[in-house]
Amino acid sequence: MPGWRDGGTPAPRPAKPRPRDDSSADVAVQFPPPRSTSRAIHRSSSRASHRSTSHAIHRFTSRVRECALIRCWTEGGGGRDRKSVILFLAARPVTAPPVRPVARRRPRRFRLFAPYRQIFAAPGARAFTAANLLARLPMGMLSVSAVLMISGSRGSYALAGAVTATGLAATALVGPWTARMVDRYGQARIAVPATVLAVLGSLSLLLCVRFGAPDWALFASYAATATTPNTGGMSRARWAHLFRDDPAARHTANSFEQAADELCFMLGPVLATLLCTAVAPEAGTAVAAFLLLSGVLLFAAQRRTEPPAAGRPASRADEVRSPLRRRGIPPLLGTFLCTGAIFGSMEVVTLAYADGLGMRSTAGGLLALQAAGSCTAGLLYGLLRPAARSGRRFLVCVGAMAVLMLLPLLAASTGRPGALAAALLCAGMATAPTMVTGMGLVQSRTPAAQLNEGMTLAVTALLGGIAAGSAAGGWVVDHVAGAGVAYVVPAVAAGLAVLLALPTAGTSPSSGTTSATGDQEWD
């Protein structure tokens, strides 16, 4: 039968010729793809919409290639199409889909200092901080430069000490009055002319020493430097104004300010000594005066962060009473007085101890270790959360300072400078937390209209304590015992600080008093 093979099996029908497009490739791809495939592509694109653009394009092109392969396999009947499919599969690039980029996490060591990044992210914070550091550095240079300049030209350390003591006493009297004017009329209006008067006094002292003026002229010139504004207090007032509703940020800012104080009083004497010995005896005073005036001018130019001036009271009845008469302030000032005595006696006794061992040149390094320990502790203390009961934490800090002040006394009895260096480093770590917490208490117990005056009173108490501690330490070294036993003076001063700090643990301002930080405190 036609169409049957020998043996009774039907012969296959010849395949119908299929029209081909000569312009197409070996693998025919139909566009657009079938509806089902279009839905699959649409669903795939929708699922990939949240990914990156490169990932979506990769998925779409992969689907189109799969559709072309399926179409070619189902409709193609010849071996040539199957070979084309194999060649097509072999030619496909084997690439992995793009990986979504993962956000890099900040290392933990950098996240540790997040509180400091937060306070310096405030508008204008970095500008006024840099200017204030420039103005604060001369605070550690002026007295040392004056002593080196006067003793070098007149040959008398007694005269140099008397002149600097006169300037310190004048500052204790004039400083609170200058701070009150700053609170009433603003930082820029008062700080700049007060700094100009102080710089003129320093330059007058320089000229009197240079041209051999009588001794009384030295006392009068250095007394004129008492109008120097409290640059550290003005900087703390700006932080308190910026973060008046954020106690944690204020705590961090106060810790930074204390660390900055320690840094300036650590670098200032070194710079002053270098200038007076390597350049000229008058170089230290001249550079300090220039830095002070430049820093205050730059600081006063930052008007955006300046706290508002309180203004003059309309009548005598509206005049706010002095911070000295506020409840809780006198015990704090007494504690600051004893803390200053620790600083002053520690400096004199350490100098005498190093001189007794024939290592006078290393005395500055020993004192720098104490300042470095305090600076480090201040920065780390700022990372802690502020205490709900600041008075109790202040008492704990003062107690820790009293305990650590026994270490130099024990180390000096061994006669080894290395042991004393380690003891001074550890002893310094307690002073910064004490000062930070104490300054925070002064801010919380002082009205906003008197914030600069309150903090200047605290600084005045510190300066008075430094003068008294220096005199007491020197007297014990010369008349009672050697320098090693004289370390009992800072230990006794720390014990007195604990006794004076006891009332601060449970004391609060008068009822209804609005503090400088904007908090309402009650008895």
Oligomer: single chain
* Helix amount: 55-70%
Give, in spatial order, the strands making up the sheet with the most strands: 1-2
Structural class label: mainly alpha
Distance between the termini: 122 Å
Rounded radius of gyration (Å): 39 Å
Order of helices and strands: HHHHHHHHHHHHHHHHHHHHHEE
List segments where confidence is low: pLDDT < 50 over at least 5 consecutive residues.
1-7, 20-33, 44-52, 94-103, 508-516, 518-523
Give a quick account of the main beta sheet: strands, pairing sense, barrel closure. Answer: 2 strands, antiparallel
Lay out the secondary structure.
Elements: H1 35-47, H2 53-75, H3 79-91, H4 108-111, H5 114-120, H6 125-136, H7 142-154, H8 157-185, H9 187-210, H10 215-223, H11 231-242, H12 247-278, H13 283-301, H14 329-356, H15 363-381, H16 390-404, H17 406-412, H18 417-428, H19 431-444, H20 451-479, H21 488-501, E1 513-514, E2 520-521
Helix pairs in contact: 1-2, 5-12, 6-11, 6-13, 7-8, 7-9, 7-12, 7-13, 8-9, 8-10, 8-20, 9-10, 9-13, 11-12, 12-13, 12-15, 12-19, 14-15, 14-19, 14-20, 14-21, 15-18, 15-19, 16-19, 16-21, 17-18
